[in-house]
Automatic annotation (TrEMBL):
<dbReference type="GO" id="GO:0035539">
    <property type="term" value="F:8-oxo-7,8-dihydrodeoxyguanosine triphosphate pyrophosphatase activity"/>
</dbReference>
<dbReference type="InterPro" id="IPR047127">
    <property type="entry name" value="MutT-like"/>
</dbReference>
<keyword id="KW-0479">Metal-binding</keyword>
<dbReference type="Pfam" id="PF13302">
    <property type="entry name" value="Acetyltransf_3"/>
</dbReference>
<dbReference type="GO" id="GO:0006281">
    <property type="term" value="P:DNA repair"/>
</dbReference>
<keyword id="KW-0235">DNA replication</keyword>
<dbReference type="Pfam" id="PF14815">
    <property type="entry name" value="NUDIX_4"/>
</dbReference>
<dbReference type="InterPro" id="IPR029119">
    <property type="entry name" value="MutY_C"/>
</dbReference>
<keyword id="KW-0515">Mutator protein</keyword>
<feature type="domain" description="Nudix hydrolase">
    <location>
        <begin position="228"/>
        <end position="357"/>
    </location>
</feature>
<keyword id="KW-0378">Hydrolase</keyword>
<feature type="region of interest" description="Disordered">
    <location>
        <begin position="1"/>
        <end position="29"/>
    </location>
</feature>
<dbReference type="GO" id="GO:0016747">
    <property type="term" value="F:acyltransferase activity, transferring groups other than amino-acyl groups"/>
</dbReference>
<dbReference type="GO" id="GO:0006260">
    <property type="term" value="P:DNA replication"/>
</dbReference>
<keyword id="KW-0234">DNA repair</keyword>
<dbReference type="GO" id="GO:0044716">
    <property type="term" value="F:8-oxo-GDP phosphatase activity"/>
</dbReference>
<dbReference type="InterPro" id="IPR015797">
    <property type="entry name" value="NUDIX_hydrolase-like_dom_sf"/>
</dbReference>
């Protein structure tokens, strides 16, 4: 168990505004055997039974022991508000008992949570699994899923976690899903009545396991360049009547998931950048753009670990059809001065500065 799955409600700071970058309502996540979903009032009795267990509570920093039954109700109620405000996501891990039989039913297995520190652009991972579900790989399955979700949906650059110094199982789990050692510290453990030494862990988007290779990737246009291959990507800043620029969020499962980008994509073999962009804008946003409405503006040339990106950026003020998130990606119309509030791939930084000055 990682230490900080706070099961005692924490008050929201007074006057806290909902964050405009807060994600939309949480859609349950599925793994091979588990579902991760918001806690419901009717989970309280099971939650209480599982967490009111010294073997579980002793590994968790903010969980009292014994755990009062009422606290389970209060805690579950508080998780809704925290999630709506984009401050924390404390979720149920459930599984199916008697899967495939007439007696199939959903059971609460444990909880997993992320608490965001907006100023540091990081979130802390915490989780626990009920004792009767130990030894089945529930922790790594749920934690790997939520970590992938977090980088794609919450505005964070880093996840952190901690585990008691003698909790080797949890430390190994964190290592397996991409966390790196980040030293040692001390945390107050409510159930232990005081401070305890912990190991600290951290991971960035770059530590996520690589997504499975895309089937038959289109051939990059400049394949024979020595050294790293040059990847040609065409991108576009769509500008609306109010001078706002459209950014799209890279979806979970793609490299750089969760970062905001200019719509566009790879130039396929035999395509011009303009033709590629017209195709991508149709595929991703369901809009029709005429080549004459694409004005070349600037380009990015950036060395990523595995390839060198060459990305012409076009400006476009005219298109037909309503802009639609065809692939379910988050979209944002952003004022030029606010572009730097959105975390973007490193290649885009110079483009953002140019665009801000130009618009
Ligand atoms: N579209 C776009 N891509 C960007 C930007 N900045 C940046 O570094 N990139 C990088 C991320 C990717 O490595 C690459 C674009 O590739 P992609 O995989 O998203 O392209 P695609 O839409 O053709 O995707 P796919 O069909 O191959 O999944 O360019 C940007 O602002 N817009």
């Amino acid at each position: 168990m990682a230490t900080t799955s706070p099961l005692a409600p924490t008050a929201s700071p007074p006057g806290d505004e909902p964050d405009p970058l807060a994600p939309p309502p949480f859609t349950p996540l599925r793994t091979e055997r588990l579902t991760i979903r918001p806690l419901r009032p009717e989970d309280a009795a099971d939650l209480h039974r599982l967490v009111n267990d010294w073997e579980v509570a002793k590994t968790l920093a903010r969980v009292p022991f014994p755990y009062p039954r009422d606290l389970a109700d209060e805690w579950i109620a508080s998780t809704r508000a925290q999630m709506a405000a984009g401050q924390a996501w404390h979720l149920a891990i459930t599984g199916l008992e008697g899967a495939g039989t007439a007696e199939e039913r959903e059971v609460l297995v444990g909880c997993i949570g992320l608490t965001r520190d907006a100023a540091k652009r990081e979130a802390e991972l915490g989780y626990w699994v009920g004792r009767r579900f130990w030894g089945h790989g529930v922790g790594p399955e749920a934690a790997a899923r939520i970590v992938s979700w977090a980088f794609a949906h919450i505005d964070v650059d880093r996840l952190v976690a901690s585990a008691l110094v003698d909790n080797e199982r949890s430390q190994k789990l964190l290592g397996r899903i991409g966390f790196r050692d980040a030293g040692e510290g001390v945390r107050d453990f409510v159930a232990r009545g005081g401070p305890m030494p912990v190991k600290l862990f951290a991971m960035t988007r770059a530590d996520l396991p690589a997504p499975p290779a895309a089937p038959a990737a289109p051939a990059p246009a400049l394949e024979d360049a020595p050294g790293k291959k040059i990847l040609l990507v065409a991108a576009c800043a769509l500008i609306d009547g109010d001078g706002r620029v459209l950014l799209a969020r890279r979806p979970e499962g793609k490299p750089l998931a969760g970062l905001w980008e200019f719509p566009g994509g790879k130039v396929h073999a035999g395509e011009t950048p303009e033709a590629a962009l017209i195709r991508e804008l149709k595929e991703e946003l369901a809009i029709d753009v005429a080549e004459s409405c694409l004005a070349p503006f600037a380009f990015a040339s950036h060395g990523y670990e595995k390839f060198h990106l060459l990305m012409p950026l076009y400006l476009c003020r005219r298109w037909s059809g309503p802009v639609t998130a065809v692939e379910g990606q988050a979209l944002a119309w952003v004022r030029p001065q606010k572009l730097s509030d959105y975390a973007m791939p490193p290649a885009d930084k110079p483009l953002v500065a140019l665009l801000r000055d130009f618009l």
